[in-house]
Design brief:
alpha+beta, 5-stranded antiparallel sheet, disordered C terminus
């Protein structure tokens, strides 16, 4: 069960407001606030796609570059001893430290996507509706 929506490289949250009797969400992993809502899952999905398209159109009109959810690089603090051991292991495998870390992250993600790890997918924070 997924609690996110995907469209054009953007991820949207799926939340429910019991008080208002509707579904709502916002585009995740960008600083700009782009939200959407709907009464049904189909309406929410359509509203999310319209929100992404509207965001991209607005950025184009304003001649601003739309934020990308991920740029493909990030800094990780792992401590000097683990850093040293990772560098040694990468050297032994004949690959760069970057490739070694990317490989480890990929393997961890693939484990989460397996049927056994699937229970961890789709967790989302519980937000109180205003």
């Amino acid at each position: 069960m997924s609690r996110t929506l995907q469209y054009k490289g953007y991820t949207g949250s799926v939340e429910v407001s019991i008080e208002d009797g509707c579904l709502f969400g916002k585009i995740q992993f960008i600083n700009d606030l782009v939200s959407y809502e709907g009464q049904t899952v189909d309406e929410l999905r359509e509203s999310f796609r319209n929100a992404v398209d509207g965001y991209l159109d607005m950025c184009k009109e304003l001649k601003e570059k739309p934020e990308k959810p991920f740029k493909g690089s990030f800094n990780v603090r792992i401590g000097s001893e683990l850093h040293r051991e990772a560098a040694r292991a990468a050297r032994e495998e004949g690959i760069s430290l970057n490739e070694f870390v990317a490989k480890g992250v990929k393997e961890a993600v693939e484990r989460r996507e397996s049927p056994v790890g699937n229970t961890f997918l789709g967790r989302s924070r519980i937000a109180a509706a205003d």
